[in-house]
């Protein structure tokens, strides 16, 4: 019996030794992965400390953020008996839908009612005053909002905070105001408002959070859409076109979004991985409850034990850093289609560990959105240049070269934008995500391939609508 007990004890001890060796090897391997992940970030020249990305202080008299805060506060007026919590949210929602005119009679009537209300509210004294203050802010030299950049776990989810929602809605309202000014026969005011919107979006590059980078992208997208509409209603004179072109220049720079990824890594990801187990437990539990995904306590504790098992936790951290480094490279590089190897590798990394999955951005989508924005901006610049050329020469040029505009490059394939004269107008376009030249065929409902990103001027009527027959 003693011999048998001895063998059992030796067997248990052997298993424990083997498990210890396996644990030590896994721990060493994950630590080596973490060291290499940090080394890769340093080789890429990425900032490694929060102080490296903390923006400098700005004198109050030069800081546009203070005026933007005032404009938001002036329009954050409670609205009883509405779906929105305040006036700015209602203005933003209506402004977002300004060009989304439905075809169903009941929805069309509701849309027209909303547009009538929006137009009336834009003329109200408090709205005019708030937008005047915002315009004053766009003429200041810098913009930095009063956010703390050290000693906190910075939430960095797009549109998750009141300030970001306010900025996004202000951009939408400016676009709507420009459109209604043009419709009302005030083209100079319309184009002045577009320039205010573009200066507003450009000012947001000074603040390094991704939420502001997203607002900037949204504001630029709104501006490009409204520019096309204004050109249909009241094309700009050459000087105005040149001024708008100038404000649209250099929007292909990826630095604001890259900087936002660095901020997310240093002020959110790294701080979360540095938490004590108790802090991390409380944070993740509260996060799940806020999202409505809270598991039963026992299940959550078991899952938490798995997350915080040292080799797994360190490997999770290393994977997160690798993913952030690859995300920056993806943003800085040429467009990669969704089925491309670089995109697949990043997608695979995102799902490998729990905390990485919670923290990591969606860089593929960020790249798609950025390329779409750049294409829209370059198309808008080309279209404005073409209209300016026609104003001087009486006709559109045979190519884009006489416009003498630098950077009219398609971000999807690196080639010049496509252009041709058509009747009394033009078509200028990008090949879009499929990277195929489809001859300037615009996107159609329910069509997922074989289309381009197109500006056709003048806009052709839809043959399916009664007015076109």
Q: How would you describe the overall organization of this protein?
A:
The chain has 469 residues and is mainly alpha-helical. It is built from 17 helices and three strands. The protein has helices at 2-43, 50-53, 64-75, 87-96, 105-122, 125-138, 162-183, 187-203, 210-233, 238-248, 255-273, 277-291, 297-308, 310-332, 341-350, 354-359, 363-393; strands spanning 418-422, 425-430, 453-457. The protein is elongated and about 105 Å long. The model is unreliable at 150-160 and 462-469 (pLDDT under 50).
What is the terminal-to-terminal distance? 100 Å
Helix content: 55-70%
The whole-angstrom Rg is 27 Å
So how many helices?
17
On the 0 to 100 scale, the average pLDDT is 86
With strands numbered from the N-terminus, the spatial order across the biggest sheet is: 1-2-3
Give the biggest sheet. 3 strands, antiparallel
The succession of helices and strands, N to C, reads HHHHHHHHHHHHHHHHHEEE
Number of strands: 3
Give the percentage of residues in beta strands.
under 5%
Basic shape: elongated
What ranges have pLDDT less than 50 throughout 5 or more consecutive residues? 150-160, 462-469
**Which structural category fits the helices and strands?**
mainly alpha
